[in-house]
Amino acid sequence: MLKKLYDWTLSMASHPRALWVLAFVAFIESSVFPIPPDALMIPMIIARPSRAFLIAAVATAASVLGGLAGYAIGYGAFELVGRPVLEFYGKDAYFAEFAARYAEWGAWAVLIAGVTPFPYKVITILSGATALSLPVFILASVVARALRFFIVAALLWKFGAPIRDFIERRLGLVFVVFVVLLVGGFYAVRFL
Predict the structure, then answer these.
(1) Using an 8 Å Cβ cutoff, are 126 and 162 in contact?
(2) Residue 80 to residues 56, 73, 74, 87, 177, Cα–Cα distance (Å)
């Protein structure tokens, strides 16, 4: 089923209303959908590099709005909807421990999940379930999602199709290393 969803998402890149499909995919990916919008963004940008930053802007805006939907699920419907989504991704067992630490580190969690391969939808739902400050959640989401989507757009705009393999296979790792270095740097400055 996941393969069919991925293939359908990829096939939408050449659809006349691809930008609307991207907005839809970015929106639902932030709360429940398992396929990241990158799968649609990459072929769209390769096909029309002049629209790279428009595509990134649409993905960012829709993703943040979808993140708000995920937040609402966690805040108002965690037991009914949120917990089954977390169970699907194998993250439900961590909720109690996570909720205890989330108030202090919530903004960092949103930033990290927003740029790394970690499922962003898990963080959006947990942010609502733990009642993370909504302005903090929105700001961290905008920064993280814009960083992720605009870096992908800029790389594809500048280098085109040859960079596609790097983005699909290694950019997630690059983002993870970046986040580890960033958090490690803040930790070192704070405690040394």
Answers:
(1) no
(2) 32, 9, 9, 12, 35
Q: What are 14-71's pLDDT values in tens digits?
A: 777 889 989 999 999 888 877 788 888 888 888 888 999 999 999 999 999 999 999 9
Q: Which residue has the tokens 């769209």?
A: 44
- Crossing angle of helices 18-29 and 38-47, in 10° steps, is 160
Q: What is the pLDDT of residues 177-192, one digit of tens each?
A: 655 655 565 555 566 6
Residue 189: both structure tokens together:
């400055």
User: Rounded to two decimals, what is the model's pTM?
Assistant: 0.79
Beta carbons within 10 angstroms of residue 160's beta carbon: 12
Q: What are the Cα distances from residue 147, in Å, to 22, 72, 77, 116, 165?
A: 17, 23, 29, 10, 19
Per-residue pLDDT at 187: 59
Reading the block at residue 129, the tokens are 């379930």
Using a 10 angstrom Cβ sphere, with 0-12 exposed, 13-18 middle and 19 or more buried, the burial of residue 102 is buried
Structure tokens at 12: 């939408």
Q: Is the pLDDT of residue 130 over 90?
A: no
Rounded to 5°, angle at Cα 98 from 172 and 75? 95
